[in-house]
Amino acid sequence: MRRRTEVVSTGSRDLQQCPSGGDPESRPLPPEAHPSCPRTSRLCLSPGQTSPLGTLFPAPPAGSLQGTGPAIGCQATDRGPIPCCLALFLLALLGELWLPALLYAAWLYLDRETPARGGRRSPWVRRWAVWRHFRDYFPITLVKTAPLDPSRNYLFGFHPHGVLVAGAFGNFCTEATGFGELFPGLTPHLLMLPFWFRLPLFRDYIMSGGERLVSSDKASVSYLLGHEGGGQVAVIAVGGPPESLEARPGALTLQILSRKGFIKAALQHGAALVPVFSFGENELFHQVPNPRGSLVRAVQERLQKLMGLALPLFHARGVFQYSFGLLPFRRPIHTVVGAPILVPRTPCPSHQAIDRLHATYLERLITLFEEHKTKYGVPPEKHLNLI
């Protein structure tokens, strides 16, 4: 039987191995936390011991502001600037800067294809030091289980969506966790809803920042997966916005059984499929109770159909206290990249071919989860709930 090898990267170069044979973690603890750890060591776990999510990294002492800066940056990087961008554009349009605003609107029309053609890239921005602080806040770790040939194009199926897709952003939109070192020759692109690229100023903010955020429409996916010479990775959160309504600590529900568009795209372009599971993604926020059939869920689903966006009512911790706020909890995220599923190029795939590949993908995804769940705090008796 062939042994599966794993390469784990947090992007840090200063992790020390504990003398007990345990695994180092990114949050320093006092030396009394483990009797055999030297003062400079990190948290030690006995061989074979796992720590449940949410208890591995206890909250800092009351009154401490440690780590809140990167979390605020996370909120701002995602959707925080939207109101500011819209307000600035409207103030310019209705004020003395109406002419530059109109010229910008005309340029938006001329530049409308850019989000579907790879966006704008800046390797320099991907290596900003702020992303390392963002990584260390949770912390985020990228785990490689198999090599990926850079001469191919890949479609990464990211699970679960979570509330803010923090693991996908930290691993694939920045170099904080060492994606370029683990997968040399590959260029990742995280797909976002086309809606965000229609908002003035905000669309240029997310494209020109270098984070490789691109539109998730069909043209964008085809552009990436059809790239001559390979080396392109399209990362899609398969569950989409509706799955974010299921994101809460302990949840393992994936909306995937009826989602086959990414399977068809992989077949049409012959792109290899790679299941990716991000352990800890759902542990970052609580949500207002919204069971199926409730008034809250009905309103959320109605808004999702009208706007194409899901609006989870989430909360976590604040800056000065840890019981309520909009900052994410400090919970470890381990994003495990599975082995590729090689896909033959089929320009016009049949329904049967799509269903077969979809079944294979589900099998590989479940296997990936089951093989790694106990390492990252998921109890052995818990399993994925596919809907």
TrEMBL record:
One of the protein's GO biological processes: triglyceride biosynthetic process
Molecular function terms from GO: diacylglycerol O-acyltransferase activity
Region Disordered: start-end pairs: 1-41
Lipid bilayer topology: Multi-pass membrane protein
Any single Pfam family the record assigns to this protein: DAGAT
Polar residues: bias regions: 7-19
Top class in the EC scheme: transferase
EC number: 2.3.1.-
Keyword Transmembrane helix: yes
Cellular component GO terms, alphabetical: endoplasmic reticulum membrane
Keyword Transmembrane helix included in the entry's annotation: yes
Matches recorded under InterPro entries: DAGAT
Main location: endoplasmic reticulum
Superkingdom as given in the UniProt entry: Eukaryota
Membrane-spanning parts: 86-110
UniProt-annotated location(s): Endoplasmic reticulum membrane
Keyword set, alphabetical order: Acyltransferase, Endoplasmic reticulum, Lipid biosynthesis, Lipid metabolism, Membrane, Transferase, Transmembrane, Transmembrane helix
Family affiliation: Belongs to the diacylglycerol acyltransferase family.
Name of the protein: Acyltransferase
Species per Swiss-Prot/TrEMBL record: Chelonoidis abingdonii
Organism placement in taxonomy: Eukaryota, Metazoa, Chordata, Craniata, Vertebrata
